[in-house]
Amino acid sequence: MICLICFSGGSLSRMSIFALGVMPYISASIIIQMMTHIYAPLIQLRKEGERGRKTITKYTRYFTGSCTLQSMGVMNALMNQNTSTTTLVLDPGLGFFITGVVTLVTGTMFLIWLGEQITERGVGNGISIIIFAGIVAGLPSAIGGTIELARNGEIQNFSVILIFLLAIVITAFVVYIERGQRKIPINYARKMQGRKMYAAQSSFLPLKLKIWQV
Questions:
Q1: Which pLDDT score is estimated for 210?
Q2: Together in a domain, 82 and 19
Q3: Contacts of residue 133, Cβ cutoff 8 Å, sequence gap at least 6
Q4: How many degrees, rounded to 5, is the angle at CA 176 between CA 172 and CA 180?
Q5: Are residues 124 and 31 in the same domain?
Q6: If DSSP states are collapsed to H, E and C, what string results for the chain?
Q7: Which structural domain, as residue segments, surrounds residue 169?
Q8: Could you report the average pLDDT of every consecutive run of 10 residues in the chain (214 residues)?
Q9: Dist CA 65 CA 112 (whole Å)
Q10: Lower CB density within 10 Å: C or N end of the chain?
């Protein structure tokens, strides 16, 4: 996590080689997952178990390549920000455009690869950890900015407390949903072993509740 924050210049949301983050991959994953319910070939792949899952993951990586268009938009916006009083790009041109697009796409692909390595080694969901790193990196400045606004009187102290309480409640709700389980009751009939009759027993099957998984 520390390496991610350092590589990104303090925050994954700032303009850096990781400026696009993993959002292109998440968008591609959502689209592919939706297609697996309406597109016949992908529906068949979804039914093939582990092999189908790996193929769908491969298609998701390919579709993530659409971030090239997003990178082109970012570079074009940067070059258009040059004015008579402000200069963001010292040498705008085709060279800067191509270099910037390649850099942003490479940064996104590196984050995807890093997330997959984290997942494969059993640390946790790699993509989720990278997103968490970006959120945590921005927390100190967000908290400091809120406190500074309250100190200057721009927002009331009650509003600050309400914001913090709301953040805690939302976090607790998300954790509750993520850890939620539905217990499916299982009843065993009486059984005979040798000359002994064992009474009926009951247990439950814990079913994990998941709204969405990247």
A1: 57
A2: yes
A3: 1, 4, 5, 12
A4: 175
A5: yes
A6: CHHHHHHCCCCCCCCCCCCCCCHHHHHHHHHHHHHCCCCHHHHHHHCCCHHHHHHHHHHHHHHHCCHHHHHHHHHHHHHCCCCCCCCCCCCCCHHHHHHHHHHHHHHHHHHHHHHHHHHHCCCCCHHHHHHHHHHHHHHHHHHHHHHHHHHCCCCCHHHHHHHHHHHHHHHHHHHHHHHCEEEEEEEECCEEECCEEECCEEEEEEEECCCCCC
A7: 156-189+201-209
A8: 42 64 86 86 83 85 85 83 69 83 89 87 82 80 84 83 89 80 72 65 67 47
A9: 11
A10: N
Spell 145-165 as b/e; 16+ CB within 10 A means b. Answer: eeeeebeeeeeeeeebeeeee
Pairwise CA distance, residues 7 & 59, whole Å:
28
Q: Is residue 194 part of a domain?
A: no
Indicate whether 13 and 104 sit together in one domain.
yes
Q: Establish if 22 belongs to a structural domain.
A: yes
**In the block, residue with structure tokens 């949301």:** 13
